Amino acid sequence: MVSASNAFMSLYIPIFLILPVIFSISTAVHTIPLNGTCLDTCGTIPVKFPFGTGFGCGHPDFARYVRCNSGTLEFSTGTGIYTISSIDYPSNTLIVRDPLMSTCSSMQDSGSFSLDRASPFTLTGDNIFVLLGCSTTSPVFDPKEDLCDTGSGSRVCRGLYSCKGVSGIGLPQNAPISTCCVYESPIQLAGYTLDLPKLQCSSYTSVYSFGGNEGDPMKWNFGISLQYNGSYYSNICKDCESSGGLCGFAGFDQSFACICRNGKNTTTSCFAQGLAWSGTWGSKVQTKFSLAGGMP
């Protein structure tokens, strides 16, 4: 006759052996951020899909470019890390600020700026890029290339050189604008790369709006306006958000994950939570453990 203790051990041992397998399947297939990692704001900026506040949040194609760092939403490229000052979701645009970029109130030697062609971001036509303190031998002044706007661009240069901040790049206020160049079109940035050492210029700035007063550079809006690809938003993400979750991704295959506010995560919505999940952006596979029937 089998004693009660022996019967318990015969049940306990298979369960003890099976549970680590289930745990390893769950963690290996669908590694997800811990609860609280994904937030819907960063500082004062609302963060919505396809963006996220950290790795595993938002869409994976955007995660390498945008993240939240100590309450500041940052945009990264090959030339540096820039602050995102605003995002307009209806128009799929955002404004980034280079901390070394010149403005009317403060001009300084700048670094270069680049935008990866393979990224889901492009420059908008609102940007007016201005090169400041350029050498007279700079290639931007090559008459054969016609790189500088000598029409309305001259007014922009005069406006910037009227700023007191121009002393920061070693020029007197109201200096001759012969060392200033305005790019008329972002296409002229040749691969979306602004290489200041190569162009022999001290600094650069970008004006995306004159703030309703083109004659007063102190009121101009300085920053780089970017357009992002808004086609990533899908029905599965809509379902996740409708259930109160945040859209993210997980695992080596970066499959879709609905990050729920209670700490549980699924591949569909926060209304359907299982013990262990794996899946892709368009499919769902659920693995359960049953004491009665073992593993399916």
TrEMBL record:
Topology relative to the membrane: Single-pass membrane protein
The keyword Cytoplasm belongs to this UniProt entry's keyword annotation: no
Residue ranges of domain Wall-associated receptor kinase galacturonan-binding in the record: 38-97
InterPro entries assigned: WAK_GUB (IPR025287)
Entry-linked Pfam families: GUB_WAK_bind (PF13947)
One example GO MF annotation: polysaccharide binding
Main location group: membrane
Superkingdom to which the source organism belongs: Eukaryota
Keyword NADP: no
Alphabetically ordered keywords of this record: Membrane, Signal, Transmembrane, Transmembrane helix
Intracellular or extracellular location(s): Membrane
A cellular component term, taken from the record's GO annotations: membrane
Transmembrane spans: 12-32
Name by which UniProt lists this protein: Wall-associated receptor kinase galacturonan-binding domain-containing protein
